[in-house]
Specification:
Blueprint lengths: L7 E7 L2 E8 L10 H23 L4 H4 E8 L6 E5 L11 E6 L7 E7 L8 E10 L15 E2 L4 E8 L3
Antiparallel strand pairs: 1-2, 3-9, 4-7, 5-9, 6-7, 7-8
Length: 165
């Protein structure tokens, strides 16, 4: 790059009178990118696009990278329900799964849904559904009562499944 070393002079002349004379210092180009730096940035951007294209070629398209559904499940006696994804992921992919259970209007309890640890595979996940009372009354001299119980009746679950990036 060429560096300017002389001062740039600017004079304003109107008719025969000189009104102002301004001196500017040399232009500092040290903070500007060189052609090699611009080329390196373009190569990095192209590499990122290639990785995205590879992910699509591996079956992770925007259509199945993230799947959000509202499903109705009927858990077993332990409150477990197996959910199979409508679009499976490629083998070896372990997606992140988030679940939220719906609770009927006016119920004295709330439904709670969670994912069983290490149950998410590229094709399915195990969802645990429990019923939790909204208010808890404890009797000191009374009998022991199970406050949180597995749900065995149909429950609506909102599921969000997302493949790792």
């Amino acid at each position: 790059m060429m560096r300017m070393t002389a001062l740039l002079m600017l004079s304003v002349v109107v008719g025969t009178r000189s009104y102002a004379q301004v001196a500017y210092p040399p232009v500092d180009t040290s903070g500007l990118a060189t052609a090699a730096q611009v080329q390196a940035a373009q190569t990095t951007a192209n590499s990122a696009m290639t990785k995205a294209d590879t992910a699509i070629a591996d079956g992770l398209t925007s259509a199945n990278r993230q799947q959000a559904l509202r499903i109705q499940v009927t858990p077993d006696a332990n409150g477990r329900a197996v959910f199979t994804y409508p679009m499976p992921y490629v083998a070896g992919t372990k997606p992140a799964v988030t679940t939220t259970a719906e609770t009927p209007n006016g119920a004295a309890y709330r439904n709670d849904a969670s994912v069983e640890e290490n149950s998410a595979t590229n094709t399915q996940v195990v969802i645990l559904v429990q019923r939790v009372p909204k208010t808890i009354v404890v009797s000191i001299l009374g009998s022991v009562t199970t406050l949180i119980a597995p749900v065995t009746t149909p429950v609506w679950i909102n599921v969000l499944v997302r493949a790792p990036v």
